[in-house]
Write a structure and sequence with these properties.
Elements: H1 2-16, E1 27-29, E2 35-37, E3 45-51, H2 60-71, E4 76-82, H3 94-105, H4 124-130, H5 132-135, E5 148-151, E6 157-161, H6 170-177
Parallel strand pairs: 3-4
Antiparallel strand pairs: 1-2, 3-5, 5-6
Length: 178
């Protein structure tokens, strides 16, 4: 009888707990056409950000690069995803985007190939980032270009940052250093 009760209670606990996925399950294509495996980022804090070259927030590339350069040795990485979902502000090809980022901002953090971050063609990474049933934290919508997602060393979403918040905001820097 005790075994049966233990089994029933265990089953109830397992079915009621939310099982979240991890960003480490994804393999994507980088801006140069190579595979980028998020599982290789285990143990690192990750900022995922959707980017655009013709947006009022495009100058955030500068602060993103500064943040990456300063903290990459502290197990922190930024992964950029160009997207053309807001007012067609990222119309270029992957090659155009890569050249723009390098020439204008010296971007050295990993940039992925252009994707969609919302709607019917939403990329699986962004489906994970925006659905509580997958990320375990909250449902959210990508508000605009340069929305930031912070993920812990286990690849779990811990915070969603508004596009208007600077990449080097005190709360982000404190999280990196925590």
């Amino acid at each position: 009888m005790k075994t049966f009760l233990f089994f029933i209670l265990s089953t109830m606990l397992l079915s009621s707990s939310s099982i979240t996925e991890s960003i480490h399950q994804f393999v994507v294509t980088d801006i140069e056409g190579n595979k980028f495996d998020f599982s290789k980022l285990k143990g690192k804090k990750i900022m995922v950000v959707n980017t655009a070259s013709r947006c009022g927030l495009t100058p955030q590339y500068e602060k993103l690069e500064e943040l990456y350069t300063k903290y990459k040795s502290k197990n922190f990485i930024i992964v950029g995803f160009p997207a053309n979902d807001f007012l067609m502000q990222e119309p270029g090809s992957n090659e155009d985007i890569a050249k723009f980022c390098k020439k204008n901002y010296g971007v050295s953090f990993p940039m992925m190939s252009k994707i969609s971050v919302k709607g019917k063609k939403i990329h699986p990474v962004y489906k994970f980032l925006t659905k509580k049933s997958l990320n375990g934290l909250k449902d959210n919508k990508v508000e605009w270009n340069f929305q930031k997602y912070l993920l812990d060393e286990k690849g779990h979403l811990v915070r969603v940052i508004s596009p208007s918040t600077a990449p080097d905001d005190t709360s982000i820097v404190e999280w990196i250093n925590k």
